[in-house]
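INTERNAL AUDIT FORM
Audit reference: QA-55
Scope: verify that the stored structure record matches its stored sequence.
Auditor: D.O.
Record contents follow.
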Amino acid sequence: MLTEDQIIAATVGERQPLNSTIYLAPYDPAWPSLFTRLAKQIHEALGDAILLLEHAGSTSVPGLSAKPIIDMVLAVADSSDESSYVKPLEEKGYTLRIREPDWHEHRLLKTPEAEGNLHVFSVGCKEIERMLLFRDWLRIHADDRLLYEETKRELAARTWKYTQNYADAKAEVVQEILARARRSQI
């Protein structure tokens, strides 16, 4: 769980508190098409610098309610080398909003016209593996998809100072589901 000071320190630009509940939309079958459009922009900006680009997060799981924000995971050679990807993305309208050098050298850019988050990591980062394992597990395990959605609904009804606080509050159920997914890989 991130403290308020950590949230503020990781933010590029002014941090706007949410001080509200979280809106969860019913699954929208247009979300994969939106990802495809955003992926095209990213490919135009970065070309061969893209080592992996995937639709991740709840909008990538058919049938799962979600915040209507397309989460994408991008792997580049070195995510700490912002000069290799941030400027070309900014030229497409993306905005660097999060810089977390102490957490997998994670960077987050907001998309220009649609609600989207581009999570950038270095190729081979274990967080990419974790995100994609969670997505893939939820796609084929309806029981855990339902558990996750019920947990999200309960938490979304609460008032959160920052969206990150809501994300952190889901950590326990995410770890529980990931433990099952990892056991199945053995």
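Auditor finding: record pair retrieved intact. The chain has a mean pLDDT of 94.
Action required: none
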